[in-house]
Amino acid sequence: MSVQTQNPFFSISEIKVSYQPKFKASERPQVTTSQHAYDIFYENWNHDVIEMTEQCYMLLLNRSNRVIGIKEVSSGGMTGTVIDPKLVFSVALKSLCTGIILCHNHPSGRLKPSEADLMLTRRLVEVGKLLDLQLLDHIILTKHCGFYSFADEGII
After folding, report:
1. I want to staple 23 with a disulfide (CB 3.0 to 4.6 A). Which of 10, 27, 105, 114 is the partner?
2. Structure confidence by residue, pLDDT tens digits, 29-59
3. Spatial separation of the C-alpha atoms in residues 104 and 73, rounded to whole Å
4. Is residue 55 a contact partner of residue 28, using CB atoms and an 8 Å limit?
């Protein structure tokens, strides 16, 4: 046996994403507006904690903006959650998507993005450019007040 097969340092951990669609590509929803993206997120959100816990999800989209999947990125406390760009893009790359839409909620019901929200969005846009993987939108939603779209506001 070689040293490489015996030494655990030659073994690399990896994130595993399972993608086994239960429907054909033509049956996947196609996202054409921020309203449509919001509707998909809102329908799939855990409404039991939407006003208690800040969470972040992402839509993974193919070249035709058809939904490949939806993935929880993070779950935090009442006033914030940590969104790690490395995790966002690792899932996006493994899914072979070409675009992502990020969405997080504000339990406070306030739609205005924080400075941290703005900085994260700019950072994800720049990283996405390097990877040829576009951040199409970042949406903030609340239970009763609708949503805020960074793309609609010209930030993306």
Report:
1. 27
2. 899 999 999 999 999 998 888 888 999 999 9
3. 9
4. no
